[in-house]
Amino acid sequence: MSGLAYYPGCSLRHSAAEFDVSTRVVLDALSIEYTEVPDWTCCGSSPAHMTDHLLAQSLAARNLRQAAMVGDRLFAPCPSCHQREKNAALEIHDDQVFRAEVNELLDVPYEADVSVLTLPEVLVQGAGPDRIKDLVKADLCRLRVVPYYGCLLGRPKVFSGESNDEQPVIMDVLLEAAGADVRPWNYKTECCGASIGIPKADIQRRLSRKVLEQALEAGAEAVVVCCPLCHQNLDMRQTQINVAFGTDLSVPVLYLTQVIGLAMGYSPEQMMLQKHFVDPRPLVARAIEDAVAFRAEEARVAAEKEARRKVVEAARAAKVARRAAKKEDSEAAE
Amino acid sequence: MRIGVFICHCGTNIAGTVDSRGLAERAAELKDVVHSEDLMYTCSEPGQAAIQRAIKELGLTRVVVAACSPHMHEVTFRRCVEEAGLNPWLFEMANIREHCSWIHTDMEKATEKAYEIVKMAVAKVRVAEPLFSEEVDVNKDVLVIGGGVAGIQTALDLADAGLKVTIVERRSTIGGVMAQLDKTFPTIDCSACILTPRMVDAAHHENIAIMAYSEVDRVSGYVGNFKVDIRRKAAMVDWTKCIGCELCMQKCPSQAPDVFNSGLAETKAIYIPFPQAVPKRAVIQTEYCRWFQQGKCRVCERVCPAGAIDYEQKEEIVQRDFGAIVMATGLDVFPWQEHYPQYGGGQIQDVISGLQYERMLNASGPTGGHVHRLSNHEEPKTVVFIQCVGSRDESVGRPYCSSVCCMYTAKQAILTKSHCGMDTEVYVFYIDIRAAGKGYEEFVKRAQTEYDVKYVRGRVSKLYEEGGKVMVRGVDTLLGEQVEVPADLVVLASGITSADGASSLAQTLNISYDEYGFYKESHPKLRPVETNTAGVFLAGACQSPKDIPTSVAQASGTAAKVLVLLAKDKLKTSPLIATVDQSRCVSCWKCLNVCPFSAPEKQELRDGSTKSHVIETVCQGCGICVATCPVNCISLKGFTTDSVIDQIEEVLLA
Amino acid sequence: MRYDAEVAASLREKILRKVKTDVAACYQCGNCTGSCPAVFTFDYTPNQVMRMLQVGLVEEVLCSRSVQLCVQCLTCTARCPREIDVAGVFEDLKTVAYARQLDVPEDARVFNKAFLDNVARFGRLSEAFFLLRYNLASRHLLNDAELGLPMIAKGKVQLLPRKARGTNEVARIYRKAVERARSQEKVS
Hints:
The complex is a heterotrimer of chains A (334), B (654) and C (188). By secondary structure, chain A is α/β, with parallel strands linked by helices. In chain A, strands 2-1-3-4 form a four-stranded parallel beta sheet. A four-stranded parallel beta sheet of chain A has the order 6-5-7-8, sandwiched between helices. The longest helix of chain A has 53 residues. With 654 residues, chain B is α/β, with parallel strands linked by helices. Chain B has five domains: 129 residues, 3-Layer(aba) Sandwich (Rossmann fold); 176 residues, FAD/NAD(P)-binding domain (3-Layer(bba) Sandwich), CATH 3.50.50.60; 57 residues, no CATH class; 166 residues, FAD/NAD(P)-binding domain; 60 residues, Alpha-Beta Plaits. The two termini of chain B are 21 Å apart. Chain C has eleven helices and no strands. In chain C, helix 8 packs antiparallel against helix 9. The longest helix of chain C is centred in the last third of the chain and has 21 residues. The two termini of chain C are 25 Å apart. Chains in contact: A-B, A-C, B-C. At the A-B interface, helix 11 of A face strand 24 of B.
């Protein structure tokens, strides 16, 4: 992919550093070339577009302008940044009058036409599930996960290109390519609470608790996310949930790129699993160990089945031969 | 040449924007116009009388009426001038209402435009020739496509009136969706009990022939003289021998999806849909049959006491002639699983559709009438009904109301209480209650009061599983609160869509259909059972979603219209047909290839050449051949090329 | 209560500028309310807000807490059977309330302001400073206090923020946008 500009966004720098690191590692492993957007600034996220439309689009446009210096495509792992950048890009490209309004606010005008991608889109378009499958070294078949898309990864349909916004599939496809045991569930896009976590913590805790419990209901042991805010609400705030409701949840929350990285053979530390509040390392270690035993059992069962089949075949062949011999005998007798 | 021009006021419809009086004065100046007057309402009795008086007293040879659209009153005025002794095709109508006064506001400009329209009509009528209808023989047999309650009703009415009717039904039995229902609202009559006598009547009626397990492949011809190819599908069972004992079904080892039970159960590869099927004959679904797929089994052949199994049976095309065709192809249920992922998309076992629930409630259904959860077979303690699934919902492409769901949900809610006990909690989530029929509102009230069904106003936004229950997350808009109900069973009142394959059948019949596949009636208010294709009629839900009483009433109405058509022995054809100037025809046969009615034929002339000739009684006057002919030798009577050029010149060379 | 036709007419023109669909299409099915994760904090449910707009109770809506607390999860828009962009309506209402400088006592407002002030100061969000500022401004001094040390220990917090090079431009964008929004509201 030529001219791919990477927009990390404010969260990925510090509070979600593991997302940034694991993303870079995976992109490098897949030979997807990218350049960080030079001198990028905050896109404004929710506070900007809830305050003023022009403000939000202009903050986003500034980053598009910066990105245009190194490429014609921008991708942002954080779905909120992606939403803002893509929304701004589409409106500005469609409406030249609006572009002029935005450019009045910028120091240097934005004249290019940068297209905007999500992280999963970059992985699919830049490498594809087959390439990921080829690079898998660690067996994650016993790591039972559910993909949690949150509000903004699959929606709105016109942005994401998903055929339906209640059951997006892009994360499922990538996780299956990585070899994880992806459980189906009906809570893929139910809100975790998003930015209401700070002003109205009790609501957010209730919503995030629901997500975690639905994950367990679906038979998963971990939730895979692709959003730093979802991660924060589900992982960092899991103790707060337990305190508020008297529950005993201990559900690790992994980033999509961490799972892919682990599948590719990178260590949990390289994927920065130690930064999580709910430590996923025991689960991951156990899953990999279980996988060995699981595969061995699979092989044994298959071998048994094959042996049995051979016996039945042989018996059938013998029966046919006996019948033929009998026939010959009776014909000879005549 | 004595042309009379009549300009209508139509109250203020025309006169409000066009100066009708002034127009009449100007028209009087036109060449060959010997009489010009303005009238308040030309179509009214005094108006028509004025025209007839002028024809008789002034010896008019051509008439122009400038008024509304020909769609409205062309027929009226043609009859009017004919009664006064003038050939009806020497009349022309100028549309100065829909084409002028109704779409403009500037009086001066509109009047000028109306004047040009009148001039064009005068130019056209000046070169018009008298035309005469032909008469064709009419075949009095009727084809009814679809054997549901509407098709059966129409067939019985027509057969009782003495006509010979053929019902073609694509399933192996007639009865349609009504046969799948348990009880009907608002009387809670058993559906099969009221339908099966009708089905048997149809089967035994001397004037009705039922072709079940058959489909219409091709239709050609025209009103009064249709030629239809009917494909008798291969059931792999000789229906002249099969006695419907169902032994083959019992012994068959292969499962197949049970369409009659709406997917709630499985049936066998060889099956009879239900015990009261008419005709009660077995059919082998070859895609599930072991003999056809793997070359093994043939158990049915061995056990059949009548020796009716015939694996070599081939499908057969039979050709029949009919005078009229009635479309009664019915409906299908909205495939909600593909469109409502927020309701589980079909993955949550205890979420079923209204029709599936109907089969569950039915004593001869797959559960023997016992209501139980699909997940653990226990009786549900809380049942939730959700209305408007696939109806009134633009986001799934169905903005219309399916008309029956509010009523059938109320019925199913009442039946749930009586099947599972009054202490069962039953909720209905609704947006509005549509209970417009006779006794319908009272029925809903019974559900709410006598049966204590809890009606909650609000849509359900999500279904998800938790702790073995199906959580129903919705809203009570009247209280202004989000609500959640833990349910054991959820029934979706899935809406009505057009029958599968409706649109391609419509193309076979050359009739119009809308974006949902419902067939288009000729006029939504005044001609609800006819189509714009002469000789093809509509009955029942194939036209639009409707309940049983409405379908039956409409079906009888359709029968009446068919009787009107076939009451005469001969039909008058329209004289507005294409004619070929054979001296210029180059025999390229493009006209033959483009005609949708197969009207042009190759005619050998006495000089040995073969030229195109349009069969007068088949041509419908659509004009496609006229436009297609590369040497312009085909002309449409009543719309000759000369008349068109004259009109154009009248306006452009003024 | 009188239905004010004039107010309802100016709704489309002046307030719902971005939203492409007409609130008149809403038939009050309540699916938006049923889908809303934040509804338990609202004073008016989403369908009530739509109804209030239909009858012209615009001032009440602009001062409502509902409008401030919507998290823009877009579920309402995704599920509306009349394909109304409900979240878009809420977004437009938020921006108008802001431009008119309506005083709505909601922590969400405080949150947004603290966030944007921080971004205008450092170019990129300095999470630690921002949270501190928010806690002070909202007077929830100990909000998330127990997370502070673990976050620092895990290296997830940047204690000493550095300004991005483009900070001044960002600050200018913020200032100009706010001025523009407020002056437009005064005119209309």
